[in-house]
Design brief:
Elements: H1 22-30, H2 32-52, E1 56-57, E2 62-63, H3 69-75, H4 78-111, H5 114-125, H6 132-137, H7 140-143, H8 148-155, H9 170-194, H10 199-206, H11 211-240, H12 243-248, H13 256-265, H14 269-294
Antiparallel strand pairs: 1-2
Length: 304
């Protein structure tokens, strides 16, 4: 008589239990590595930033406690006025970047052969491969009083004296933000336009829709998620990057990043944490509103 454990059902060999190989187990764990990384180096530090912002300040550091003094020092001082002003300048940078950058994304999607579109968009990403301080500092010889722009305009007879508003002013900060962050709107706008079938442009032409009508009624609604995502990137970077107002702005050019940097220099770490927490809340609020309005996941929709 044959033992039941030696044969399977109907005399067939027994079914061996599934044992994943080492490679399969490793590939399964590889999925969790990015999650662990984001929790340890993004979510946890952001949560600690909020916690540290209510700590009490000491002479050289801070100690556990609960104090809203840092937020009081921000909201009931000139820092709030500077923060709101920098928000206004960042909005101007977003508008200028949209007017200059998004038409590029539309042109690439509409007029450039599909095989070359990604290569063309890559040209607008290449500046990010150069250090930001080099990119910003290189603008000074171009925009200063005796720089390339003023010398060219003077030689052409278009101006009688150098334009002084291009550098060490709020206008200089806006120029620096636009030239630094405009590729964001080009890239995210192109990603959104990739989900727009190319025949849409031909249909609009066949129906006799003019450029303005086609842009407002067709392109803008379809590309809204990408436009909003690029606008958020530019807005938040305009608020947070302290390098641009330091190099391009005058004495009154201050943004949230510079406020936090000044707080760290003054050893007021709870204030620096509070400014960071306010910046983080601003970003999360914008992303929430944008996702509710436009569904930002549409940016990653497959290309047709």
């Amino acid at each position: 008589m044959t033992d039941a454990t030696d044969t399977g059902l109907g005399g067939l060999p027994p079914v061996e239990p599934f044992r994943p190989t080492l490679r399969e187990r490793m590939s399964g764990w590889a999925f969790y590595i990015p999650i662990v990384f984001m929790v340890l180096f993004f979510a946890l530090p952001m949560a600690l930033t909020v916690v540290f912002s209510v700590f009490e300040r000491t002479m050289f550091w801070m100690e556990p406690g609960f104090s809203l003094l840092a937020y009081e020092n921000f909201f009931f001082s000139a820092r709030l006025e500077n923060f709101l002003a920098s928000m206004g300048y960042s909005l101007i940078s977003v508008a200028v970047s949209f007017c200059l950058g998004f038409p590029i994304a539309v042109f690439v999607r509409k007029s450039v052969p599909q095989a070359a579109q990604h290569r063309v968009v890559l040209l607008f990403i290449l500046p990010f491969m150069v250090s930001e301080i080099i990119r910003i500092f290189a603008l000074r010889p171009v925009l200063q009083r005796n720089g390339l722009v003023n010398e060219t305009l003077l030689n052409l007879g278009l101006i009688d004296e150098p334009i002084t508003a291009l550098l060490y002013t709020h206008t200089g900060v806006i120029i620096g933000e636009v030239l630094s962050f405009m590729p964001f709107i080009v890239f995210s706008g192109f990603l959104a336009m990739e989900a727009v079938p190319k025949y849409i442009f031909e249909v609009c032409d066949d129906l006799g829709a003019g450029p303005v009508r086609r842009f407002v009624d067709v392109i803008l609604p379809l590309a809204a998620p990408g436009i909003f995502a690029g606008a958020v990137f530019i807005f938040v970077n305009g608020l947070g990057v302290a390098l641009i107002p330091n190099i391009m702005g005058g004495p009154g050019a201050v943004n949230a990043g510079l406020i936090a940097t000044q707080a760290i220099t003054a050893l007021d770490f709870p204030l620096a944490m509070a400014v960071s927490a306010i910046m983080m809340a601003t970003l999360m609020g914008l992303l929430y509103v944008g996702h509710k309005l436009f569904d930002l996941t549409k940016i990653l929709a497959p290309m047709n």
